[in-house]
Design a protein that fits this description.
Layout lengths: L1 H5 L11 H15 L6 H17 L4 H11 L21 H6 L9 H18 L4 H9 L6 H14 L13
Helix pairs in contact: 2-3, 3-4, 3-6, 4-8, 6-7, 7-8
Length: 170
């Protein structure tokens, strides 16, 4: 986990083709338009989400569903228990796998931590998303949080390169 956090590669889209990358970026950008009005910021965030998710072996749309539930895409969100940033990472993780100087409000840093932590929990739970999401949220064994993330993932951010489908956005 520490190795994953310390790698500071510049985020980039990882797709089979540039056309596929642009199709995903355009579609997801449109879906986030109401939450993040600035197109440059939106595209930069989406590139970072896709990169960090992919490098951790996660579905980027799952991570978007998690961010939707955790912070509503507010990079400066702070929970009542002190979790920070887009993916609501608890500060103890800085001491555990990173460095106290790491800024969890920084988009790339927060995403790197969150994706690394979720991957860790998926490995512990042998790929069981329900249990891994419960661990991530500190609600292992309770259905509410995993169901919220799954619902956001499938209702708002589900995408496949061949579908050409549009998912209605509220």
């Amino acid at each position: 986990m520490q190795r994953s956090i310390s790698d500071r590669a510049e985020p980039r889209l990882i797709f089979d083709s540039p056309a596929q990358a642009e199709a995903w970026l355009a579609e997801m950008s449109e879906r986030l338009k109401k939450r993040i009005p600035d197109e440059f910021v939106r595209r930069k965030l989406l590139t970072a989400i896709h990169y960090e998710s992919t490098r951790a072996g996660l579905d980027p749309q799952l991570v978007m569903g998690l961010i939707h539930v955790e912070s509503g895409f507010n990079r400066y969100a702070v929970s009542v228990v002190g979790a920070r940033g887009l993916m609501q990472v608890m500060p103890f993780w800085q001491r555990s796998i990173g460095s106290p100087e790491h800024n969890l409000f920084d988009i790339n840093t927060g995403l790197r931590y969150g994706c690394t932590i979720l991957r860790h929990y998926l490995d512990i739970e042998n790929g069981d998303y329900f249990r891994a999401l419960g661990r991530y949220n500190g609600s292992l064994g309770k259905a509410e949080y995993p169901n919220l993330v799954h619902g956001a993932w499938k209702n708002w951010y589900d995408w496949s390169p061949n579908s050409g489908q549009k998912v209605a956005q509220r």
